[in-house]
Amino acid sequence: MAARIVVPESVEKPYEYYRDNVAKSLELFDELVALGKPRVLFSSSASLYATKDDFEVTEEDALAPGSPYARTKRMMEQVLEDMAVATGLRAIILRYFNPIGSDPDLESGIYAKEPSHVLGQLVMAARGIKDSFTITGTEHPTRDGTGIRDYIHVWDLARAHVRAVEKFDDVLAAADAPSTVINIGTGDGVTVRELIDSFQRVFGQEVPVTEAPPRPGDAVGAYANVDKSARLLDWHTQLSLDEAIASALAWGEKRQEILGYE
Description:
The chain is of the alpha/beta class. It has one domain (7-259): NAD(P)-binding Rossmann-like Domain (Rossmann fold). The chain is built from 9 helices and 11 strands. The protein has helices at residues 7-12, 14-34, 68-86, 118-126, 154-166, 168-175, 192-203, 227-233, 241-259; strands spanning 39-45, 56-57, 90-96, 98-100, 133-136, 148-149, 151-153, 179-184, 190-191, 209-212, 223-224. Strands 1-3-8 form a 3-stranded parallel beta sheet, sandwiched between helices. α7 packs across α9.
C-alpha cells in the first residue's frame, strides 16, 4: 500500500514509478522470504484489464495495462507469481476496482489536498474549492460516452483485506496454487455521468461540470466479476454507492479538524 498510484503522474514520471513500485517491492519481497515472513497480500489494480465489449471482467480475462502505473502493478503480480513458485513466498493479489468514500466513523479519510480521483474532485467542486468538476473523456464506447468504473466503498475494501488475512492459507488451498488473483469490486458498472447524478442527489444540489479530453493513460474502464471473491473469501460488498458518497462528503467537512488543512 506504499505504491505510487496516480496514472497521469506515472506518464510524466515513469522512472519514479518503476523505482518505487517495482525495484523497492522486489527488495521487500526478497527480505520477507529471508525473514521467514512469506505471506504477502498485494494491492493490485483493475487498470490492468483490456477493454471488453460488455465491460465485465474476470480474473482470467485479457490484460492490457495502459500506463506506467498499471504496468508496474502487472510486473509485481508476475514477480509474486514467479517467486511463489520458486520460494516459500505466498501471495494473494487483490485487484482493486475504484475505492471511494471514507471510514464511516470519520476517523480517517483522504489526506491529499487535491485528490486526483473522481469522487475527491467532485467533493472539491461541491464545496467550492474548485470552480467545477471536469469529466475527462466523453466519447468512450459506453452507454453515455463517459468512462465506466466499479466504485467500491473503501470500508468494504478494508473488510476484504481483513477476510483475506483471516483466510489466507485456506484461500490458497482452495485455489490450489501458491498465489492467486482476486477481483475486489461491487460487480456493477457506473459511468462518470451516472456517478455525478448520484452525487448530486446525495449532495442535494447541482455541481458545476465541464468536459475535457481523456487524460494520458486514462482507460475506458471495467467492472468486476466478483464470483471468485465470493467463493474464496466468502465476501461481498455491504455498502452502497450513496453511502460512499455521503461518507466522502462528511469527511470533506471534518478533514480540516483532523488533518489541520482543507
